[in-house]
């Protein structure tokens, strides 16, 4: 597993407090994100390994399993939280991950500088 997973791929990698039973958010967000990146329902279905009909049902309000929702989020290039929350978490989530990475880089640079001094 990556140290900084931007896109959770399974239930174990997701925050257990994330409300996954929010089909009213999921179906709105999946369609918005799909259109934003210019993907067809068929292409998302193919890349997330679900049927075309399933994607159509999800966009009409049917709630997918958590694993399927994670796969779709990965295909769309957004964290699962961005699809199931009523808040826009995508930017906040990425910024948090970037800050963690930069802090680790800063720590590594400090350690290397100490070695050479």
Question: What tags apply to this protein structure?
Answer:
elongated; mainly alpha; 63% helix
Describe the protein.
With 117 residues, the protein is mainly alpha-helical. It has two domains: 68 residues, lambda repressor-like DNA-binding domains (434 Repressor (Amino-terminal Domain), Orthogonal Bundle), CATH 1.10.260.40; 30 residues. Helices cover 63% and strands 0% of the residues. The chain is built from six helices and no strands. Helix 2 crosses helix 3.
What is the topological layout?
Elements lengths: L22 H15 L3 H8 L3 H8 L6 H11 L3 H5 L5 H27 L1
Helix pairs in contact: 2-3, 2-4
Helix fraction by DSSP (H/I, runs of at least 4):
55-70%
- Written as H for each helix and E for each strand, in order along the chain, the element string is HHHHHH
What best-fitting shape do the alpha-carbon axes yield?
elongated
What is the name of the CATH superfamily of the largest domain?
Answer: lambda repressor-like DNA-binding domains
Number of domains: 2
CATH topology call of the largest domain? 434 Repressor (Amino-terminal Domain)
Poorly predicted ranges (pLDDT <50, ≥5 residues)?
1-21
């Amino acid at each position: 597993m990556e140290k900084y997973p931007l896109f959770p791929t399974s239930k174990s990698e997701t925050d257990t407090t994330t409300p996954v039973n929010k089909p009213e958010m999921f179906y709105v967000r999946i369609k918005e994100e799909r259109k934003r990146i210019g993907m067809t329902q068929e292409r998302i279905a193919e890349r997330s390994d679900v049927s075309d009909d399933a994607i159509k049902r999800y966009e009409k309000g049917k709630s997918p399993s958590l694993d399927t929702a994670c796969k779709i989020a990965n295909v769309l290039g957004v964290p699962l939280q961005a699809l199931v929350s009523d808040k826009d978490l995508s930017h906040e989530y990425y910024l948090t991950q970037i800050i963690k990475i930069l802090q680790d880089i800063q720590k590594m640079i400090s350690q290397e500088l100490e070695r050479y001094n």
